[in-house]
Amino acid sequence: MFKHLKAVSGDPLLALIIAHKQDTNPKKIDLGVGVYKDDNGHTPILNTVKKAEAILLEQEDSKSYLGIYGATEFEAIIKDLILGEGNELITSGRIRSTQTPGGTGALKVAADFISANLKDARLWVSDPTWGNHKSIFDSAGVEVKDYPYYDPATNGLRFDDMMATLEAEVKEGDLLLLHACCHNPTGIDLQFDHWKVLTDFVNKRGLLPLVDAAYQGFGDGLDEDLAGLRYMAANVQDMLIANSFSKNFGIYRERCGGLSVIAASADEATAAFSIIGQAIRANYSMPPAHGAAVVYTIMSSPELKAEWELEVAAMRDRINGLREKLVAKLAASGVSKDFSFIKDQRGMFSYSGLTLEQVRTLRSEYAIYIADTGRMSVAGVSDSNIDYLCESIAKVVG
Fold it and tell me: What is the pTM for the complete model shown?
């Protein structure tokens, strides 16, 4: 039955992780993996998560099904974190939110919802974008198109080119996928003025924005990172938002995310939400409970919430501090290239500006593992490896 099947190539980033693990060089550095690491190279469990799990261990009294949307009380947590408590969209009922298996699960449900109900819609994504965006929507039968985003010549944003392409090529009813903050893979974010321009454009051209908020809190702050998203949400009629709790709660393997739909009225939001429920039922039936229970326990306790906010700030400050150190140490190493743009990027990732040849040389001769695109995970840098990293880059770049 399966004799005709041919094995497909695996995810290149996963292959990079495997290659790093198999490397025997004691100085090896993994800058490919997409998780937060502390200065010891460990992905820690947050103290607040440990405390919440202890509470759940004492209080949980059932493992019964929760329903397709997950825990009903979790909906308010998603809304409040994305939009802010008391937001008019929440009080008016124009937003509905469901728990999903991570941000990827939210995007998959959104893709199925779009495919079934917005049949002629195309999805526009940044070039480049997160590697799984296209696969998720392609598999649902949604046509995916690119808009310009990253400029390798300046290591910056091609906003004028982005808008020119969208102006010329989008059609009414298309979807525009935007990264809320900490753009993956480039680290180059839209500024607030860009969000204003895009909001006007979405309204003028009749587009549906889909915002991916996977890294809230890792850029400039929990509220600051979603300022553009919140402006757009307040000024458009319809919107989809996929968010993840994997990074800012450090619960990657628990698969906890959310999908929110904003509509012109509470009735329209309820109708869309019910259809999203059908997509969930046909997909995974119910999201995993533990991660959401942990998040709910933290967010419903003023003490734990305040402590969690400090933990997120500590992770953010460490990453932003590493960016500053990288720029300073690369300059001190005598490298010919100006890497100052790295400190202006946000989030765990950086498009380093390294060429494919340079990346492969770093890998083969120095055991430094960076994606072929030049994307590196800043969280993989530590005080113990930063000097070796910068010296190696200087030798390769010149």
Answer: 0.95
Contact of 156 with 341, CB cutoff 8 Å: yes
Range of the domain at 35: 12-45+316-397
In the predicted structure, residue 25 carries a pLDDT above the cut 90: yes
- Do 220 and 122 share a structural domain? yes
Q: Are residues 109 and 255 both part of a single domain? A: yes
Provide the CA 287 distance to its chain's centre, in angstroms: 19
CA-nearest of 265, 216, 222, 220 to 241 is 216
Number of domains the chain contains: 2
CATH number at residue 245: 3.40.640.10
- Summarize pLDDT for 35-86 with one digit per residue, the tens: 999 988 889 999 999 999 999 999 999 999 999 999 999 999 999 999 999 9
Residue 366 burial (CB count, 10 A): 19
Q: Are residues 291 and 213 in the same domain?
A: yes
Q: Which residues are catalytic, by number? A: 130, 212, 247
Rounded distance between C-alpha atoms, residue 264 and residue 391, angstroms: 55
Q: Which residues contact 95 (CB under 8 A, 6 or more apart)?
A: 79, 83, 89, 233, 260, 261, 262, 269
What does DSSP say about strands 239-244 and 29-30: parallel, antiparallel, or unpaired?
Answer: unpaired
